[in-house]
Structure formats: structure tokens, C-alpha cells
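Troubleshooting log. The previous structure file for this entry was overwritten by mistake, so regenerating from the original sequence record. Sequence copied from the archived sheet and checked twice against the printout by T.R.
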Amino acid sequence: MKPQSLKPSKPEERKHYVPRSKPLMDHLVSPETRHKLHCLKNHLTQVELQAKKKAEKQAAEDDKIIRQYLTDHGLTATKTSTGLYYIIETQGTGPSCISTSDVKVAYKGYFTDGSVFDQSSAAGITFNLQGVIAGWTEGIPFFKEGWLS
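Regenerated output below.
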């Protein structure tokens, strides 16, 4: 038996047939548009690389500031693989939580110059750890209920 051709045999089917020797985009987009898309892709790649380099540089500067702050204040912190620093002055005796837990936290956030940038009431605030910044989602589970930092 003779193998059947993949190419359509009827004229009305042929007008929709696109041979697959070239990528489909080559048949649907003009050479000028392909060139513009290629240039745009290269530009976006460069922008992404620049942003990544800038973020890495900022992270290194931030890490230096944090290490200097710790040294200046005689503090010893633990640093995670993601770059999160934390200090447990008094570990709690209650249960631990996980990154998806609802927790109640009384907190005060400081800049390295000592000024407060945010704080809860003394009674604390309740939230799910999936709805907060990544540092809280990662860091809060290190502490047991009743901890002080």
C-alpha cells in the first residue's frame, strides 16, 4: 500500500496548508516584524540582565549595611540561605507555626537608624503567613509562640 501524502489534495484545503519546513511564525509574520520582535527580545533580555545586576548589587550593599549594624550593636544573628537575618533573644515555649499558618504578632519595625517604620498595637495583629512579605513567611516559623526578638 502506498503511503498517504500529508499535503492536502483538494484546492480548498491547500489554501490553509502551511508546510512545516519553516517555523510557523515565518509564514505568518513579515521579515520586518520578525526583525523587530528579535530586537525587542534582545532588548528585554538586556533590561532583565541589567535589573538582575542592579538587584545583586543592592543586595550586596544591603548585606554590608546589615552586617555593620550587627557589629556596631554587638548583635549575633543567624542568616538563612535567602539572606534573611534573624535574632531570637528568648525562644518561646509554645508551639511552632509553618509558612501557611495564621499567626498573631505584636511587632515594631525599625530602620537601621533606629526610627520606627511600622508597628502593630500592643495586642498584636493576626494574619496568614501567605499574605505577608517573604521575609515574614520565611522567618516567623523559626520562632515558637511566646518568643521575644
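The helical segments are 11-14, 24-28, 31-72, 134-139. Archived copy saved in two places this time.
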